[in-house]
Amino acid sequence: MEHWSPTSTTATADTSPQQPSVAVRLARDPKVVFAGGFILLLIVVAIAAPLVAPQDPLAQNLLMATVPPVGFADAEPGFLLGTDGLGRDVLSRVIFGTRISLTVAFVAAGLACLIGSLLGLLAGYLGNLVDTMISRLVDIWMAFPPVLLSILLVAILGTGLHSVIAAIVVIDWTRFCRVVRTETRGQAQMDYVVAARTIGFSRPAILFREILPNVVPVLIALLTLEMGIAVVVEAILSFVGLSVSSDTPTWGGMIAEGRQIVHEAWWVLAVPLAALFATVVAFNQLGDGLARSLDPVLRR
Amino acid sequence: MTRPRLSIETLSAISLRDGNRPILRRVSLAVDTGEVHGLVGESGAGKSTIAKAILGIVPSQVKITAGRIDFEGRDLLSLSARELREILGRDIALIPQDPSTALNPARRIDAQMTDGLRLKRNLLASEARRRARALLEEVQIRDPDRVLHSYPHQLSGGMRQRVLIAAAFGLEPKLVIADEPTTALDVTVQKQILRLIRSLQERHGTSVLFVSHDLGVVAKICDRVTVLYMGKVVEQGTTADVLNAPRHAYTKALLAANPRYDRPDTGLEPTPPEVIAALHAEIAAFDASVMGSRDG
Fold it and tell me: Is residue A55 part of a domain?
């Protein structure tokens, strides 16, 4: 301090009101709280399905077929949401169905995110030939109708959970790639990237330590939205019988079964449809809320 | 006579975008040990291109066609990317122009300040943090712990510039490139930042290449000055000589254009057209002589 002339003033940090931390902002966002809470509940239900489900989801009881939900005439206690055409408990089947839906949502969207963002980061940061090649590939890829592509893929790979996941990854990575590429390109122009170069950072270090943290908020929001889409695609594949084998309850499979007897037993269709609807809405709302809450904190 | 710390010799560059228009015309300058060397000129004069050439971050549309940038006996222009990376940060550091964009918005200050320390000094995280804290105290930040824990958007412009200065001097570099470090700041903060750079520079014996368009700022901080116009050195000398007794008409015009509160009716004049015309003629003659010597 002795070098300082007496007039020099000491700098103090801003006295402007502190922005609340990310966690606080998220906790204050009703979309994040309700949608996130619902998805958390689904996760718990999926994991604890054998404990939560009142009945064996596969146990048939033809004497108890198409029993309506509790509260309607001819309802049976023990079958809260009624039974299907084979006398299986609808509630228990919906509960077990969350397992497939959520597995697909997290694994498929996660893998698509990983592959798509890695390619997007490379395209956006390296530019030139790499960018051209990856971007053209995405363009061509997106020209195929996605559902057709996934049906084709499952037809080739055979049915089963891994095929469904593969099919979703194959159609979904392009979305991540596009968004991440654009974000990365924007960030790569920023001064802080140049500043990082001038302290001798290597290119991979700049990409992963400097740019990636700025892309993550967008990525999280997109990932959440794509999880909702993955749930729908899985349901579509189950509906057309291209998902897991029919002895595993899935929402799409239940919707397909319910469709055939909708006039005698509407609840067999309505209950899994409602579950699917609520889940997708929750994922979308969560993605919306996350995008809003994460963004302004990290970049103004 | 000892060798200067940084010596730029006949550096020439062209813009590939713009019909191979020359950007730098055989610029030579030397920055001695412990000296603050001002690089002055209006926008487009090539000041930033020189700074970028030293740091190896010349944009792709600019091509360096000739010259050397000699730093401690090595030509920075002929080093490999890896060799240059080793020198950057450790021996040469940058104080960027705009503190609002030069810090990564998604990372806390402590993470950003300790990057260089850990990369170039191999410090442990805890040591690097302690060093970062000491550095912030050295740039007179009163609550360094809070600042270290902040994101850039939670700090004011002056604070961010202090952080960047602390980070630049943090590795005890031999040369600091200050690229218009006060342009984005208001005048009161400007003064503090200039004083800060000068005192850090004196204490550590650092050489500084101070890029600016503001003669007032240069007068306050620089020992010597190089005046550029359209990529050509117009005048060079000690700050006192150049500012008190400018030899070139352009420098005189620049000085006359500087608003002065002691003579409020003067200043803010554009450079007289005859000075510009003379300069352009001078540059055209220079380009012709360079062309001629290249052909011959």
Answer: no
Determine, yes or no, domain membership for B117.
no
pTM of the model: 0.77
- The 10s digit of each residue's pLDDT in B213-243 is 888 888 888 999 999 888 888 889 898 888 8
> Across the interface, which of A14, A199, A201 has its CB nearest the CB of B154?
A14
Confirm if A200 and B55 have CB atoms less than 8 A apart.
no
Q: Please say whether the beta carbons of B279 and B229 come within 8 A.
A: yes
- Decide: residue A19, CB within 10 A, 0-12 exposed, 13-18 middle, 19+ buried: middle
Q: Count CA atoms within 13 Å of residue A32 on its CB side.
A: 16
A27 Cα to chain B: minimum distance (Å): 20
Range of the domain at A166: 60-298
CB contact under 8 A, A11 and B162: yes
CA distance A163 to chain B (A): 37
DSSP one-letter string for A218-237 = HHHHHHHHHHHHHHHHHHHH
The verdict on residue B139 lying in a domain is no
Domain count, chain B: 1
Assess if residue B15 is contained within a domain. Answer: yes
Q: Beta-carbon neighbour count of residue B82 at 10 Å?
A: 9
Q: ipTM higher than 0.90?
A: no
Q: How far apart, in Å, are the Cα atoms of A93 and each of A18, A80, A96, A269, B278? A: 49, 12, 5, 12, 89
We report the CATH number of the domain holding residue B220 as 3.40.50.300
- The answer to whether position B262 is within a domain reads yes
Domain count of chain A?
Answer: 1
A62-71 confidence digits (pLDDT tens): 888 888 888 8
Percentage helix, strand, coil for chain B under 3-state DSSP, each rounded to 5: 45, 25, 35
- What CATH number corresponds to the domain at position A179? 1.10.3720.10
Task: Tell me the C-alpha distance between A73 and A100, whole Å.
Answer: 32
Which pLDDT tens digit goes with each residue over A160-178? 888 888 888 988 899 999 9
| Distant-in-sequence, close-in-space partners of A46: CB < 8 Å, separation ≥ 6 | A98, A99, A101, A102, A103
pLDDT at B252: 80
